[in-house]
Amino acid sequence: MHVLLYTLFIQLIGILYLVWRGGQAVPRGWWRRSLRGVLLADLLFVLVVVLLRHQLSSDLLTFSIVFVCSWAFVLLYIVPLALLINGGRLLYKRITGQTLRARLGDTVYQRAKWVLFFVTVAISALILMYGYQQAATPHMVEHKVELTKPLGADREHLRVLFVSDLHFSETIGRPFAERLLELYKKTEPDLMLVGGDIFDYYPDPAYLDSIPEIMQQITPPLGCYYVLGNHEYRSDMAKKKAWIKLVGGTLLVDSIATPGGAVTLIGRDDYTQSERASLSELIGQIPQESQQLPRILFEHQPRQLYSLASNGIDLALYGHTHDGQIFPFSLLVRAYYPIAHGFTERYGTPVYVSSGYGAAGPAMRLFTNSEVAVFDLYSTSK
What is the pLDDT of residues 36-65, one digit of tens each? Predict the structure, then answer.
């Protein structure tokens, strides 16, 4: 529920500013008092939700998270717009020595404020609709990878479906599981990899609404493998591991697997765990008979990329970043991570960082995409 604390901070700043300056967008008297009253009531509601979140019913908590977080994301755009409008008004006065009210007259000035108010409301609605649509319609990206090592089991081709950051929660539920099942059936992969942050916080929502039964229908021939993300360590790890087993997944925590004898999977624990094994230690665990197989590393966070080539990694898959999920956070994420999203080559190794399938907080994305990735692996040495 960290997201509620973050949104509380955003709303505390944003709403107080709108109470101070935004109220001037409507006439004095009843209209202005009503607008400010609604804004302050919303802030009070956020405080109550944060304080009583553990006592709320599941349905009420879901509604509260959607409402609180959605409004907070809208504030990220509305407050700068209000600042821009107010700054323009002050700049006009400074340049001309005359206020806009004096220039336009009271009637036209008031009409202009009403227009700006309703335009702002319309923009808010459009932001919400666009954000939820982006999260609800995952993109499918496809990449062809030419391997320098031969695939095992006399294979010439291996199709891998990679998805990260499911974030099952009060707001990411059955519809997202159903869409993932549809994408699985459409792509028909040989192998599926899940790159961590399966759960947003608590595991309980992932057990509801027949989500396990839906996920159990994802049965690629060579299996479905999972690694842990930082969100898995936030609560009830035992129940989260039990869910992965329930849906037919195999969890790799600093361990090796060779599904179908085709490739070597290296599943690393999350970067936040100080006791996790180094990549070279994991390479040392590869059985002798699997040493010549292509090596696919998958873990949650795109860190320590410099160690890929020296350990003979043929494909590295990551998640975690969400590509920022909400603009302008995407700019910060892209500045922080060497690879925030996409498929590229780093230190001679093909690397892919997913923008994620689900979302942290409400099921909303603004100017980023929800996605799954399909990799068609071919061996050039045969």
Answer: 787 788 777 777 777 776 676 666 766 777
